[in-house]
Automatic annotation (TrEMBL):
The lineage of its organism: Eukaryota, Sar, Alveolata, Dinophyceae, Suessiales. It comes from Polarella glacialis (Dinoflagellate). Binds 1 zinc ion per subunit. This is Carbonic anhydrase. Its cofactor is Zn(2+). SMART domains: Pro_CA. Its EC number is 4.2.1.1.
């Protein structure tokens, strides 16, 4: 049983008044919609159709040719009466500059959108993964797009914490080495008097805990780049984080793994460039084949097997 706020999926008799208004999707990008907006009277789109619709919508957005406008009363009534049949699930960042529907020129009913800071599944993972399972199992979306973006504040914050922590460790290591050369006793004093690390913030706020959980993303980005400026590492970490979210979903959802393995569902990554407005589509995770052999059924906070994701 699902919350009614997610929309009732039961097919209902088409309102005669609405049926007479049958027309093609005026935006031209999200497939045929019998009632002018996508509802359960429409068929689900395939993954390839969905990604084409997303790409076409983003092109309209970049070219300043967006067509998705307000809904008239008939379209609103169709959505309210006939339930939703979105073409794709998009996991985006909560950043106000990355409005998912607008940048894909989508209207209500076109996309099932999940957003949080850093487009991540590491926190509130039960609600995120459960929502994705709902969208693919009940709403029949065939494409899950994890959407990062340039200039992500959450990723930048995590990168700064990582670099500050690395610098602190370097200083401590240097101090300990110097101290060891004098006496072992002074080394012990140095270790026992460690100042709080900049990233040691789990107890101070949930937001800092969220950034702390993204630190491994920055670390991996730094390793893959072989070092770099804060901006360079953060930019690469955006992509690393997209893969990490996809890998998390594959690791902890049997529903998703089964549908991906059978070819019913695809998970792809993408990065929205806030400057150009364009979305770079990255395709599937390089680790997908490996992760399809995992056996997680629920997320770690719900008792699943803990896995170290990379
Ligand atoms: Zn962001």
């Amino acid at each position: 049983m699902f919350c009614s706020c997610l929309g009732h999926q039961q097919k209902q008799l088409v309102d005669p008044d609405i049926e007479n208004d049958s027309r093609e999707d005026p935006s031209g990008g999200f497939g045929p919609s019998k009632l002018g907006v996508r509802t359960t009277v429409d068929e689900p789109l395939s993954a390839s159709q969905a990604i084409e619709a997303l790409q076409a919508g983003n092109r309209r957005f970049v070219q300043g040719d967006a067509k998705a406008g307000g809904l008239d009363h008939r379209a609103r009534r169709a959505l309210a009466s006939h339930g939703q049949r979105p073409v794709a699930t998009v996991i985006g960042c909560a950043d106000s500059r990355c409005p998912v529907e607008q940048l894909f020129d989508a209207r209500p009913g076109d996309l099932f959108v999940l957003r949080n800071a850093g487009n991540t599944c590491t926190h509130s993972e039960g609600s995120m993964v459960g929502s994705v399972e709902y969208s693919v199992a009940i709403l029949e979306t065939k494409m899950i797009l994890v959407l990062g973006h340039t200039g992500c504040g959450a990723i930048m914050g995590a990168t700064k914490i990582f670099l500050e922590r690395s610098a602190q460790k370097h200083i401590e290591a240097t101090c300990q080495k110097d101290a060891k050369e004098t006496t072992d006793q002074s080394t012990q004093a140095s270790e026992s008097e460690q100042p709080p690390q900049p990233g040691d913030c789990k107890s101070r706020s949930t937001l800092l805990g969220l950034l702390d959980a993204l630190v491994p993303v920055a670390e991996k980005a730094c390793v893959e780049l072989g070092g770099g400026s804060t901006e360079e590492i953060a930019a690469h970490a955006v992509k690393v984080n997209v893969w990490r979210t996809i890998n998390f979903l594959l690791s902890y959802s049997l529903i998703i793994r089964e549908k991906v393995a059978s070819g019913e569902l695809e998970l792809q990554g993408a990065i929205y460039n806030m400057s150009s407005g364009a979305v770079e589509f990255l395709g599937k995770s390089p680790k997908q084949a490996e992760l399809l052999n995992y056996d997680g059924h629920v997320v770690p906070s719900m008792g699943g097997l803990a896995r170290q994701l990379s």
